[in-house]
Amino acid sequence: MHETESFAFTGHGGHRLDGRLERPRYVRPRAVAIFAHCFTCGKDSRGATLITRALAAEGIAVLRFDFAGLGGSEGDFASFATQVADLEAAAKALSEADLAPSLLIGHSLGGAAVIAAAGRIEGISAVATIGAPSDTDHVLHHLGDHLEEIEVEGEAVVKIGGRDFCVKKQFIEETRGALQRERLEEFNHPLLVMHSPTDNLVGIEHARALFEAARHPKSFVSLDGADHLLTRDADARYAAGVIAAWAARYAPSPAEEPKETLSGTVRVETAGGKFAQWVTTPSHRFLADEPVSYGGTDDGPTPYDLLLGALGSCTSMTIAMYARHKGIDLRHVSIELEHSRDHMSDTRSDVEEGAGERIEAIDRHIRLEGDFSEKQRKRMIEIADRCPVHRTLEGELHIHTTSEP
């Protein structure tokens, strides 16, 4: 459950940098992160988008933005030094928006950039890298035969990943020679190194060099079978899940805690969006919503789903309790329920115009598995009608409504 917002800010060189802020929906984020994309990928690359959205669903707000000269951002193609400075600018912009970051995540060259930026941003508690090189000179290899031309002529158009980039001499000067081993000697943050052993762009030996140079606490996770860009959804989501679990130890700022309720009391309050509601019981909290087809965002079960779930779970519990009491070998209960009324006509005619008396039905199909006789099976089906929720629904139910002025 996440929502995406535009987030533009001024970079180190005074240029407008274009970003997207992925937020957890309905709750305050438990942490805020900045995601630095790979060499020429941009904020909208598949890996960057999937990872940041998956982290938002785990309760971590994440800013992904285009470095200068890429995507929607202004300026010349950013050198490594400029990327580091722009990460500082991003952190400042987030802090001014009351979203001070505590986590840095970098992919490929972005991984090298977050290691370099961590000590320059106040409040960073942990850093995670994905497929990061152990030295920035590795990136210059992508320039191939153009490297000498750039140094002599001052710039050249280089085709990288099927796209043309104007690379200037300043890029080379500010990127060359940034050895991560030296930076890690003074690195005082928990570090998570993630790398695929089948990465054919940045070899696994780079991960080994980073891990060996870093101080504890440090962790390594192998992204088995993944490519460098994490183009498979499953690989990106796995990386996000690992980062979220790992970061919880170092960025434990919790989302807003549910208010306590009295025993037997259920509290329902608006969560945001068009229909979403927080449902709070004495020991649990979850969302109820409507499907997208009815204007909701489908972030939780519908009210009728909850009604059928209440009847089905109570029925199953009651049958299981009876079977245990009678020593019946009941191994599994499966119940399918359907409410027969059309929900769309309900919301339009019944709510807006008022509805008269009508007959409603719930179809309940019970499947019992185990070693028992046909007589025992029939008796358990009879007992199903004695479940408390069943009796409440079929009884003379009165709902008393009060309201605060």
How do you describe this structure in short?
The protein is α/β, with parallel strands linked by helices and 405 residues long.
Strand order, sheet with most strands: 1-4-6-5-7-8-11-12
- The CATH class designation of the largest domain is Alpha Beta
Q: How many distinct domains?
A: 2
The global form is elongated
DSSP helical segment count: 13
The class by helix and strand makeup works out as alpha/beta
Largest sheet: 8 strands, mixed
Question: Whole-number average pLDDT?
Answer: 85
Uncertain runs with pLDDT below 50, 5 residues or more?
none
E-strand count: 17
CATH architecture annotation of the largest domain: 3-Layer(aba) Sandwich
Strand portion, in percent?
15-25%
H/E series? EEEEEHEHEHEHHEEHHEHEHEEEHEHEHH
Percent helix, as a range, is: 25-40%
CATH topology label of the largest domain: Rossmann fold
Q: CATH homologous superfamily of the largest domain - what is it?
A: Alpha/Beta hydrolase fold, catalytic domain
**Oligomeric composition of the shown chains:** single chain
